[in-house]
Amino acid sequence: MKIKFVVVGKTVEKYLIDSCSEYEKRVKKYINFEFVVLKDLKNLSSLSFPQVKAAEAVLLEPYFKGGSYNILLDEHGKEFSSKEFADFLEKKMVNSSKDITFVVGGPYGFDEKISAAADFKISLSKMTFSHQMVRLIFLEQLYRAFTIMHGEPYHHE
Predict the structure, then answer these.
(1) DSSP alpha helices (H): ranges in the chain?
(2) Residue 113, by phi and psi: left (phi above 0), alpha (psi -120 to 50) or beta?
(3) How far apart are CA 60 and CA 99, in angstroms?
(4) What's the pLDDT tens digit per position in 15-49?
């Protein structure tokens, strides 16, 4: 089993890059993990939000054609506590031979085509975070889920 984390556009803030790299390294201790950063789209100022989302959908579509269980990080998705997320992830890993792909879209969200193709949607919070910050928050929660699954002392309840 493999987990992929697919994001649109690269992060420019060094503190976010360094922190994401640290949690990526930690997650790789538990599972085959790939962090995929899709290139930024160029010349977007003349495009409407729906046009930007459609252009991003073209970049994301290949990740929805491999038989993976695709989960969007989306403000309209299901909210979990850290423990509930760990339980959800563990069930997916035990009950399926499919890889799991988590996807973060660009700043305007997902095109309807991508939204419709998703198997599940998760919301990290009722609050809105920048699509750059979501990467770090999600990677930390993914690491936390693995420590919960392994009974390690990182998570306290």
Answers:
(1) 14-27, 49-60, 82-95, 112-117, 131-149
(2) alpha
(3) 16
(4) 999 999 999 999 999 999 999 999 887 777 788 99
- The residue whose two tokens read 């729906």 is 50
Q: What is the pTM of this model?
A: 0.94
CA distance 70 to 157: 29
Going by pLDDT thresholds of 50, 70 and 90, the confidence category of residue 151 is very high
CA–CA separation, 51 vs 76, rounded Å? 21
Contact of 64 with 117, CB cutoff 8 Å: yes
d(CA 149, CA 27): 12
C-alpha 132/C-alpha 10 separation (Å) is: 8
Cα 112 from Cα 121, distance rounded (Å) = 13
Sign of the dihedral defined by the CA atoms of residues 34, 141, 30, 154, in that order = positive
Q: What are the tokens at 24?
A: 């990526």
What is the CATH number that goes with domain 2-149?
3.40.1280.10
The CA distance from 140 to 27, in Å, is: 9
Is 71:102 a contact under the CB 8 Å cutoff?
yes
